[in-house]
Amino acid sequence: MARQRVVELTLLLLAAFITVATVTISAVDERVAWSWGVVPYLTGLMVLWAVTHLALRRWASSSNGLLFPITALLQGLGFAFIVRIDPELANNHFAWSVAATCGFLLVLKGLDDLNWLQKARPYVGVVGALLLLAPGIIAAGPGTRGSSSTIDIGAVSIAPQQLGNLFLITFFAAWLSRYRSRNTAEHLGQVQPLDGDPSRFLPLVGGWLLISILVIFHSDMSLGFTTFIIFVSMWWIAAGRMRDLAVFLAAITGSLVVAAGSIAETKSIFAAWIDPWGNPELGNASIQSSFALAGGGLTGTGPGGGSADLIPGATDLFAFVPLAEELGFIGGAAVLLSYLLLVGVGLRLAVAARTEFDTILASGIAIFFGAQAWASIAAVVRFLPPTGLSLPFVALNGSLLVTCNIALALLLKVSEAAPNVSERTQLLPQISVQIPGDQ
Amino acid sequence: MTRRIAHVGVVFLVLYGLLFFRLEIIQVFNADTLRNHPQNTREITLVFDEPRGFIRTADGEVIAHTVAVSGRQGRLRQYPYGPLYSHVSGFISAENGGSGLERTQNDFLGGKDLGVRLQDNRDLFIDRSRTGQLELSIRHDIQLIARAAMAGQVGAAVVLDPATGSVLGLWSAPQFDPNHLSSHDLGAVTSDYEALSSDPNQPLLNRAEFQSYEIGSLFTIVTAATAIEEGLRDFAVPPVRSVAPREGSQAIVHDAGACGGDLRSLLLTDCSPGWATIGTTIGREKLSDISQRLGITAKSPIRLDGSPKGALEAGSLNSSASYAAVGEGLKVTPLQIAHLFATIANGGTRMQPHAVSRVLAYDGKVLKEFAPDPLRQALSKETAAELRQLLADNVTDGTARSLSIDGISVGGMVATQFPDKHSWAVAMTPVTLPGLVVAVLLEDDNFSDQQISEANVAAVTRRITEAILRLPSFKVGGS
After folding, report:
1. Model ipTM?
2. Is residue B9 part of a domain?
3. CA closest to A284 among chain B residues
4. Which residue range is the domain that position B330 belongs to?
5. How many domains does chain B have?
6. Considering only CA atoms, which of B453, A179, B297 is closest in space to residue A187?
7. What is the pLDDT of residues B138-176, one digit of tens each?
8. Which end of chain A is more exposed for a tag (fewer CB within 10 A), N or C?
9. CATH code for the domain of B247
10. Which residue is closest to B311 within chain A, CA to CA?
């Protein structure tokens, strides 16, 4: 339906306006090192949005019209703050945006039928696991020491873990939808925990193994955390057995205890998390971001008026801090709401989806966005220990941007395939009036 | 399945709700605490090269001002008197934040305060940089006297006007030259700052306000106040040489033999076992109550108006009444000691100590006047008068005889703290209606003999007091 595209265009114009306004206001501030060289990149970003919008009109005209404008707004805000902090980064951001849009278009045009993904699930699963574990395996190889999270190819450094997560989401969705009929309460009734096909434990064992490898051998807690949240939520949606969940959580806790005991640096990181003021070396980023957030207050210092130069990692891991400092609590809350909206729309699409595979896939992607953004912001406000997770769409993290755009394309594909999309994905439930005798 | 998708949705709603409240706590509810956090130097760092008002003393000497220079920044902060006011004005630096008034009064100096930014009606429409200028209660001549008397010593001296709480002089040694830290030569600034902050003598530390020392026998004046308020002024302690508060703990001993008697003779002979006996008679509750009222064990030690809170922990009384009565283990800052004796001098009313008296506009108009700020009536007028009499007797006949000045009555105390190698002296004058309180703390690493240390600290204190009284422009009892 073209109605979704009209909604999309309107909201897209609004997102463009907010982006341009933020860039302009910060450019006026005398403390910001402004360069006119940013303007072509800003224009380029808008062109990419226009291309995406036209592609959606052509290849997925009835897909949901809310998703893309939300992500565009987040990407635009991210761009505005990245060039405000360092105009030199504009071309880096743009290059990754082009790559992300290419990935988006490729999935949108190239993937005719989502069922193909379901059929190719063994390959998808293997590729996903490899991508997820690759950087850790390479880092553990001879000649290198410590855990590295990126692979350097020439001048480009790639962090494929999140793409691996996306592949695994697809794989889990295919697996869970196939095994669902044999393993869920709906299909089996309330039976004894060990009744039914023992293969129903396979997904749980697989998920536990994967997360344990990440946490124990790669000591990558943050990646383990997102994978865990995604997996548990998807499994709960598909299977929903309380006892199995309890056993799984106990197993994960065991792995965590092993991991916490084996990593020596965990202790000092934890100490710096609990009391950053007492550990100014390790806790510097936390201290600086708390001060910056407090400096912003309710309404913020205004774009360009903040202290982003003092925050380590203000364009990537702490991308939320300059945003909430300069736009204030109001702006920070708006960004939080954007992510929540993204999750909400994604889950509604999951409810409305055509097949069980589509449902589980869409909820997995929605949870992926939600968990990644939540963990990133939670670390910034010292709700979680420092995670090393970037803010999706906002942060200058090219691999994540590409992954998120591909995920977005998949979500749009799901909504395209769903029947009656325009009615079922509205924000407010529609009140339907049944007229007696009218059948 | 739809129901379980709703579960996940609700979980995310709750998770994001938690983030929302956490963000609100940081950005709205706790924002002021974080902005005034001692480690938070970003506000002053951000305004380093912006227009900034000058700071001048009560008698008109400019101690910090911003001058135009050629170069990229165009402005440079200068301190004409160099180290003389280093712990008053503090410094402002491009990378190392700031300290002192530069930091605590940043809103006025940099024009962030609304009253400063909008100095006349046109300012509502024209965006121009307005700054505020500070006028201090500190006097240049008194500051010079403090420097001369404290020459070669490590320690702090605080001169207070007890009636208003105005700080007339504030000295902490060693000092530093703030000009070196506000320079535009960032490499030199960094090496200077590192040298200063790694110096074991801590020249960057304002000892008067931010360093606690054991109070020693100065605390017995608080015990005396408690005894008077409890009606024990005629209580005679039988002669005693040592008191052991607990089985196995160190006894409180008077080296010169057995002592005792009423409050006056206890004070005049510095009879610690006698005070310990009184402490056990009164009980720790009462002592703790009065110390709380006088602000020496308050939650946050008293600071100059606007100084950041939380960098120092509050001192606490010893858990045993007899130890508590002689101040064992209680730590206070020199400013707190000056404040304590100023309270006694001021008839028991505590006045908030402040160094800034006025904020001036660009044309000299007064934008804000800091009136004397009474905190509370900590002691009754009668008790305060009796304590002053005890202190005066202590100077004429007691342990503080070296504080006496010809032709004017002085009250005071001298104390040394042997294990910590520091000594205290406080003087107030004239005793009937004191207009001047001088508190001095000396650190002495070569501390060997109590008598020499006491004579030394008393001499410094007497020199400061006497020189101030001789100033032609200083009128005792209201300046």
Report:
1. 0.89
2. yes
3. B39
4. 213-470
5. 2
6. A179
7. 999 999 999 999 888 899 999 999 988 899 999 998 999
8. C
9. 3.40.710.10
10. A277
